[in-house]
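[Discussion] Sanity-checking designs against the backbone

I'm trying to build intuition for which residues belong where. Below is a structure token string of 202 positions. I'd appreciate it if someone posts a full sequence so I can compare it with mine line by line.
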């Protein structure tokens, strides 16, 4: 295998995926965060602003995309959502390609993709890591977020594949219902395991 092993990292809201992504980075594995790229490209001076404004007038301003205004336009209209995705997805794919070129010599890389299974992204990675925690831990974390309500939480869960199904589809599961030290130890053990698998197949 001449290119890096591609790890797809995913998990439902409140499961600790961002924390685990940071742990992969601390273990020396480069991480591509698709959501962070989108936020940057839609932020102040972002390269997607002109295309989004042209398609959805009034949805951007000096601070970038007006998330609530754009959300109100696209989330109730599937055609408009597809129109937005046609602007965003190719740009993210381009950034991902740049990332792969930059880190082409690394043994492995992580693609941090929140809706990996929901979007069929598992076909684009070599192995899938699902971040999971008990439902009560997830609930406590999410409801502690600013502006979160029971209703919003329920709506988000309805859009996401159930955690149990993600675990069944995963190649590896990282449990974040334990201490941070235990979770980080599990991540580092997985990195070493995957390195050995990659070495054996190359």
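Best answer:
Here's mine. Compare freely.
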């Amino acid at each position: 295998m001449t290119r890096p092993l591609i790890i797809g990292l995913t998990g439902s809201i409140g499961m600790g995926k961002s924390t685990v992504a940071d742990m992969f980075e601390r273990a020396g594995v480069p991480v591509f965060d698709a959501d962070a790229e989108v936020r940057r490209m839609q932020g102040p001076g972002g390269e997607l602003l002109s295309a989004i404004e042209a398609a959805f007038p009034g949805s951007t301003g000096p601070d970038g995309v007006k998330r609530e205004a754009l959300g109100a336009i696209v989330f109730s209209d599937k055609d408009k959502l597809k129109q937005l995705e046609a602007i965003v997805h190719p740009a993210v794919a381009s950034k991902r390609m740049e990332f792969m070129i930059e880190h082409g010599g690394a043994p492995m890389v992580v693609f941090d993709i929140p809706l990996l299974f929901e979007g069929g992204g598992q076909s684009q990675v070599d192995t899938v890591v699902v971040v999971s925690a008990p439902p009560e831990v997830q609930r406590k974390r999410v409801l502690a977020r600013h502006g979160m309500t029971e209703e919003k939480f329920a709506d988000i869960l309805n859009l996401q594949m159930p955690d149990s199904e993600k675990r069944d589809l995963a190649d590896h599961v990282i449990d974040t219902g334990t201490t941070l030290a235990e979770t980080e130890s599990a991540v580092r053990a997985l990195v070493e395991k995957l390195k050995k698998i990659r070495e054996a197949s190359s």
